[in-house]
Known about the structure:
Layout: H1 3-21, E1 46-47, H2 57-61, H3 65-71, E2 80-82, E3 108-113, E4 118-123, E5 127-128, E6 144-148, E7 161-164, E8 171-172, H4 176-179, E9 180-181, E10 201-202, H5 206-210, H6 214-218, E11 223-224, H7 231-235, E12 248-249, E13 252-254, H8 258-262, H9 272-275, H10 282-288, H11 302-305, H12 307-311, H13 318-321, H14 324-328, E14 333-334, H15 375-380, H16 394-401
Parallel strand pairs: 1-11, 13-14
Antiparallel strand pairs: 2-3, 3-4, 4-6, 5-8, 6-7, 9-10, 12-13
Amino acid sequence: MSRKTLILIGLLLLALATASCAGPEGPEGPAGPAGPEGPAGEAAMAAAGTGAEYISSAACGECHTDTYDVFMKSGHPYKLNPVVDGQPPEYPFTEVTELPEGYTWDDISYVIGGYNWKYRFVDNEGYVITGVPGARGDGNTDYIGQFNFANPNVPGKEEASSAAYHPGEEHKYDCGSCHTTGYDPNTPTEGMPGIVGSWAEPGIQCEECHGPGSLHAADPRGVALDIERDSALCGECHLRGGSEDVDSGGGFIKHHEQYEELFQSKHITINCVVCHDPHTGVIALRKANAEDASVDVTRTSCENCHFNEAAYQDSAIHPAAAECISCHMPRVTKSAVGNIDMFTGDIRTHLMAINPTQIGQFTEDGKNALSELGLNFACRSCHVDGGSATVKTDEELIEKAYGYHDRPASP
């Protein structure tokens, strides 16, 4: 046996003997002095969760002044607007001038909408106004309860108009989940039997997306608010029913269906905030910069991703006369007004893929939109009698649309 081996065996036996002779562990000694404080990590930022209360967007604006000023020009805060001391609500770009027959501002508690497309009213008992005072639910089907703003983008709707809305019905206001902040469906609003539930603040305000802010306001550096960028948050309201089908009626897609529209295509893989700044909006940016058409109204442009398609179009006219969204995001949706003969609603769709062999847009019963754009809306909002371009037959449209962005083969 080598000397090296003998040494190793001896060391092993010594270690075993020492371990077997060791006594019980002694008591813990006193703690040493504290070391220097290290930098705060992510765990130091507590979420504003249970226990936080709603404090209002105005309170948020005391610190986040620039963001608040921009946000208050967008449409979100104006989904539901209180009438205070008999005075109409104020809006950044519009004015509510019409009242339903038989009512004064003293008879009205809220204006529904009024920011851009249309407005309706809630009476002092919380019911949507659908008839003259004292005649709620009388069945009068001629009563006018909705007022539409003039819309220069819709042919024939360049002047303000009006429409019936559930005329003659007793219609409770049950839209709080998407028109208010901090909505509670289980707590009634005192003195207003027509309102379903209650809320912390009318309109879609800061805290509807970021969560109640009292803890954050008390400790801004120690308590972080939610910053949710997933499209599912937007989809809580920009959705009508399930995400599988896009509901339609009257020859148009129904409004607030952007989320299920995106589900019809690969665009669902990107978040809404890639294109949209959640603190402003397309309408706000266009109206605020009405004299400068070069101002971007989205965070990115189609050609940033679809650069090959932007680089080649089988037309010398379209690149100068139309934008990508003219064909790929036509106004298929109707909120207030539309012109069915001109294939023009008042909101651009988020269905973007064009099927060059599809003419129509809806299922046979008209209740759902097809997953891809047909050529009626993609092309005929221009190529129609009275439109801005030459009238085309179905066959001519299909021939032009098929392979529109395909580069010709090299000779």
